[in-house]
Amino acid sequence: MSKAVVSTLYDSDVFRMACRQFDQAADAINLPEEIRDRTKYPRRCIAVSLPVRRDNGSVTVFEGYRVQHNISTGPSKGGIRFHEGVTLGEVAALAMWMSWKCSLVGLPYGGAKGGVIVNPRELSPTELEHLSRRYMQELIGFVGPQLDIAAPDVGTNEQIMAWMMDTYSNHVGYISPGVVTGKPISVGGSQGRREATGAGVAYLVGKYLEDLRIPVSQATVAIQGFGNVGSETALALSAMGARIIAISDYTGGIHNPAGIDVKKALAYIQYAGVLKDFDGGGAVTNEELLLLECTVLVPAALERVITKDNAPRLRCRVIAEGANGPTTNEADRIIEARGDIELIPDILCNSGGVIVSYFEWLQNLQSFYWSRDEVLAKLNGILDRAKESVEYQKRKFKFGRRLAALTLGIGRVAETKQKRGLFP
């Protein structure tokens, strides 16, 4: 019998949470012991020091990471996060979830994730460019269109991806747009990529409301996190006829039972930078927003916000996980025991971003670009097939929806590793 690995390198609350999810899924499908640790733990990680000259002439050294969880199913794929709370364990957990997500929706990728410990709002545009370019420079040799492909995440955006692509291209001596996705259209980005994650969340919300026989026009929606994912979800659901009654960012939130003008909120953020003092409704905290009565709750910010403390008090009909890992293991058990909330798990719900990133990568490799309508039609087709496979797995084995999604994703990665064998 194989001896289980006990990893201290990635030890953190969020990594332990991801490992508990894996263990539960592995037990459910009787995954052989000899393949478990190979499937579970990251293939490799890189930690880098990033000295950046500040505008005042001083030098600050930032710390960054890149974790490549799985490279058995294809090049690794995953976002880069600029946030002051980044840890190696968090990055490893996010890379693990990305492996299951890519596998679940049928993409030829493994999972990866990157992060830098920094508050990007405290950097000038010049300092942010220097940090972005230095991070990519330190990763050259570990990344590339056939090795590891980055994308935006919390605290990063398409401009940062453009700087990183340019840095890599200057190093290899030719333009290499496929090294990152989520780029501006002018440098090889894809139509539909900016809104892809939120559009995918909204599309699946619409499908599950249809299953519940709840008209979208009668649905109320509360969204925690009004960054790219949250705002695009709000725009898409609003266009479908839903009423957005609450939104929030790190400064707090707005609640208006009559509905929030999403475009007005976005215009305000473009001017003010944050939601604070937006006059579209009454003030609400991020914690209070989760407990509002609504049809659909969308946690679209950071992980571990739905906990054993607030799960019993949730007043929604559907949870659509726009963020990665927003629901703790204990909260999962409470929600499943309640039986009155339909949960769309993160590795299905927010997979639209990586699906359209895959489309962007394909277009870069072929130098042949698609229209927005083509991109979104292909996205919806993949989401339909993934939802159908999750629901079939759920019915067949009487699993909860998260367990159904995880067993599909994990099982496919494990099967690939078994078929490829163990290199001596």
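the 2nd protein, sequnce then structure:
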Amino acid sequence: MGTIYSHSRLSSFENCPKQFEFRYVLKVPSASEGVEAFVGKRVHEVLERLYLFVGKGQIPGIEKVVDRYHKLWEETYDPERVRIVRENTPLSYYRQLGEDCLRGYYLRHYPFDDSETLGLEKRVVFPLDDAGEYRMQGIIDRISRARDGAIEIHDYKTGARVPSQRILDQDRQLALYQLGLARTYGDDTEFRLVWHYVAKNRTCVSTRTKDDLAQLRTETIARIDEIQAATEFPARKISLCGWCEYKDRCPLWASPEDLARIEAEDAAARAEKRETGARAPEPADDSQLSLL
């Protein structure tokens, strides 16, 4: 079987082919992560735990939810690994941000009876074509059945920016998840795509027509074909470069001395890959990677 693609993998190639090469071709281990991603993961973990209790008929108080968040922070925070990119922004700001996100979400959705939870952090793998040559995967934060019977695909975002409705209506990630879930719930099932921008305490919703989904299949297959055919992976300077885990080895940012050493290491890695054909473990397909 060939490579299983994901929204994160596709976005990496679109944003910066060089980052894609480091992460998915050369499989260079990441030595750090941005503090925004760290906060997002802790918020996701707490919300997953909250809905597990709700599913058992137990609703923990808001202070218990916040206390769990701070305990997770203490257990997982590593100052050697977590990077703060924005200058003059203290760590305490980010820690409080996560707490504020959880408090706002809790108060907005309590007592969490607006829908029935069907899945939490659910991994889906599905083909885009009948032959199964183009396969996708993803992790869905929460799947629920609303009171009107619609299947809702939920995604938690801790970033400060809330996209316009026009952008959300063109979003690929959750629409791809709909393609996957339609194989379980049926193509004629009503789906809603739901984003929770917890830092802004806003919920946004979008839907897709069958024509929209057909076009998405076609465009995604074309993008995969483009990636499969790529032999060069040029670096691209974008606004997110500061958060890239490979900035210190990027030709646009590394010093000439470091770049010469890195290029030699990468050339050796490519040669070894060609000679052995060995496959290193794939990076985790993590929907939480796109938190900015």
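Strands lie at 4-6, 33-34, 82-83, 115-127, 135-146, 151-157, 191-197, 202-206. The first helix runs from residue 7 to 15.
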